[in-house]
């Protein structure tokens, strides 16, 4: 198909979507069909081309600031530049590294940024060694209990929001062994004493995870990893913000 014909088809499709969304009593079937076509089309719709991506941020230059990469087509072929050395992220957890073409997706308003705080174990608290306990994490501004198949759809979809403008997703709880509570050496992210994706929605604003085997005697750090449905860490609209996750330090005796 010639480029002019492609452009005309895209404009007609965009008009169908706009009309279906705006017209009172418009057919929901038409709207669904138009949306489905947009999600299966191999051509970038002109309405989503972000002209801001063509600006490297150095107008004028700022000392010490790095110029951004730029694109006039929303980076739609970015990962083509990495092939075959770096494979595409394909829904699997590729431990050797990959390149992801899924968009970031919907970003919440600043007033709807999520946050979390551990209820148990409390910071500086203690649990009985090798005894079961329930980790509890208080959360706000996130619709929890929503997760996709991490073995097949990892990072394979954009972040989405619910009708209240909150990120739709879930959280994880990870416990790492420390040499001491005052340890300053960075930990190894590939090593942990406990890890659990919290599948259930929060109850009264609190997520719970059973640490059924407990942990051996020692010092520990427990942290949350708040995520969108496809397991990517939550994305928020501003660079300057408080922590979206929480960590507490505790001992097992």
TrEMBL record:
InterPro entries attached here? Appressorial_penetr-assoc
The protein depicted here goes by the name Ribosomal protein s17
* Keyword Signal applies: yes
Q: Which domain of life is it from?
A: Eukaryota
Signal peptide range equals 1-22
Q: Which UniProt keywords apply?
A: Signal
